[in-house]
Amino acid sequence: MRAPSRPLALTVLASAMLMTVLDGSIVTVAMPAMQADLGFTPAGLSWVVNAYLIAFGSFLLLAGRLGDLVGRKRMFLAGTAVFTAASVLAAVAASPGVLIAARFLQGAGSAMSSAVSLGILVTLFTEPRERARAIAVFSFTGAAGASLGQVLGGLLTDALSWNWIFFINLPIGAAAIALAARALPADRGLGLRAGADALGALLVTAGLMTGIYAVVRIEEYGAGSAHTLGLGALALALLTGFLFRQRRAATPLMPLRMLRNRSVAGANLVQLLMVAPLFAFQVLTALYLQQVQGYGATATGLAMLPAALVIGAVSLGAAARLITRFGERAVLLTGITLLIGVLGLLTRLPVHASYVTDLLPVMLLAAGFGLALPALTALGMSGADEADAGLASGLFNTTQQIGMALGVAVLTTLAAARTETLDAAGRTAAEALTSGYRLAFGVGTGLLITALAVAATLLRPRAGAPKPEVVIAA
């Protein structure tokens, strides 16, 4: 039997990730059209995003472990099929309820395929330099896909209709399934008896779902409300029960030995602190451009496109070489430092901004994400052996989704509260909005500084670990 093509397999994995990330950002631009067409209430419209986010974040860890048990290729194919079918359902939805249900199914399908993608990648590419390049390609699709999604969403919605942002997934998903069946390596998995902890699965899925639900409703209920605190306490109790269950279960869903690995635990913590402000940066900057500067949907996407381009150029052209030469830690610290500059500059946003002098430098400094994410991904997967690769992938992606949810919910709430206070004090709408965004970016800068400190402290090279290979560029 002919061995699978690794470049083709990487193309399949990256394409599936791109489809998932595009779907997450492409929807935001089309939401006003969905509201007008389907009759969403303002509160109900937020569930077009929330339903996807809750399902995606809640099922990642479970899907990653099931991928280890039943086979990562099977889980990837099943997840892509569910996502594609749900996209068709969303495209033909004629009511808010059907669209929200379809978005939940999309999130579940995305979790199934995304949870095992990194696990497949690290087992395919075992040589350090090749793995660094593969992770750089994979990371680029996630980092740049969101910005590209905003452009594509605006174009499709303006030229055709919002339905086409979902219809476009049908040919992409079908092609991904066909190519994945041929290109991805076959694996039988460990078998369900090797780790089918049903109670642990119930506890962690319910805990994550409850916690993410509480986070995405912070803007509506407030961080100190009984609703938020009550659900947060319930989520914490469920997740604590899950950890106790994992200590005693004969076949744990998530062996706690993974969290004792400094690289794995540190990388996941750094990702949480890094992704939270950076995903909020994307959302808040888009709102600033539209609500303060008066940009349209397509213009907003184009304004943020330079960030995607520089992230792509760095992650695909330089990140792998730099990681090979200097090591993941050094590249990660450099990338986070540049990202601190991104949010630091945004704390000085004026009401009347010039794109060239006030925003373009920010977009160019986003190149730091093209350095930080590949290095962090490599560190996050470094402590897992082949049997736990799917679980490590699911854990890393779960941390990413929780960070995204927390970042958007908390920082947009801070911005909104500041805006309301200034609005009540008689400031103009543009001044109040800008001040709110500056506050959020300031808090985000603090989170990135904390991420830098954690990375420098916890992700130190282990004694006796091999030094990075020094490569002299031609």
Automatic annotation (TrEMBL):
Q: Which domain of life is it from?
A: Bacteria
Give the membrane topology, semicolon-separated if more than one. Answer: Multi-pass membrane protein
Q: What is its main location?
A: membrane
Membrane spanning residue stretches: 40-63, 75-94, 100-122, 134-156, 162-184, 196-216, 222-244, 265-289, 295-318, 330-347, 359-381, 402-419, 439-459
- Cite the InterPro entries for this sequence: MFS (IPR011701), MFS_dom (IPR020846), MFS_trans_sf (IPR036259)
Q: Could you tell me which residue ranges the Major facilitator superfamily (MFS) profile domain spans?
A: 9-463
Subcellular localization, per the record?
Answer: Cell membrane
What keywords appear on the UniProt entry? Antibiotic resistance, Cell membrane, Membrane, Transmembrane, Transmembrane helix, Transport
Database matches in PANTHER family: BLR6921 PROTEIN (PTHR42718:SF46), MAJOR FACILITATOR SUPERFAMILY MULTIDRUG TRANSPORTER MFSC (PTHR42718)
Q: Could you identify this protein by its name?
A: MFS transporter
Organism of this sequence: Streptomyces roseolus
